[in-house]
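User: Watch each token:
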Amino acid sequence: MTFSRRRRRWTLVPLVVSMIGSAACGGDTAAPRPSGPLGTVAGVGVVPDPSGSDVLGGTSGVTTVASGRQVTVGEVADGNKVLFIGDSIFAALSRRFDGPGCDLLVPLGWRVSIEGERGKPIDLGLDIIDKKLPQGFDAAVLFLGTNYGRDQAKYREMLREILDTLAPRPVIILTATEFKPYIAEVNEVIIDEAAARDNLWLLDWRIISRSPGLLWKDGIHPVPAGNELMMRRIIEMLGMAPAPADGKCLPSEFTDDAPLANLPPAAPTTTDPNATTTTLDPTVTTTTVSPTVPGATTTTISPSTTSTTLVSN
């Protein structure tokens, strides 16, 4: 394929990304942005002060030009089509799992496709870009590291192939939650690549996800509040879409989730002694509790049961 060679390149200017000394792309010829204070994103509000400690190196995730002007992906992208490439973490942001991704990005003018499948390794990223890039995407967001095969050399090789194919498009790349010690190998590769490439924005989710209340008990998947926070951090880097800002939620084409039996076991959980007890109305036939984690098992409560203890997972 030759589509990766047909886009125009932008003028590069030195940038400071977190504390790793990498660079991003920008220029003084970018289209005028909506008026407002420095760091304001329409529909989101004022970007947090860069002195925050939730992103790599103790800075906020916002890329900053040496002169102090904040630069977003929207300022350097050639168009407004953005492709999310991930596993179950990104699948949870899509509309097929009632995620918040499109609802937050479309008002900012982005035409967004969120592609992610449960339980898939980094190989999925190559399949996604092979199918989706010919459709004309201008930017990408990556989360590929949860289903790590414990082969760092292979992971590095495949990530580099994905990033090489996406270049020179601007790309936001997220580190993975270190729910197992070996996930640190994934993040080492991601951080190395972010330091070596001037079209990457690094969002250190491994640090952000350590905050209490953001993940389910498996220590991997974000709860709804975690999904909202992840999207807010991504939007800080993505910013407003360039013209034409005709936002649209594009359909997800990758929906072949791996069977639950093929997934790594979740961390063991125990019954919460403070859980509430609910007495069911015997006139009700059945009550179904729908999961909010992609692929979670649906539980049906029998009307013959007098009480049940509900503990969120």
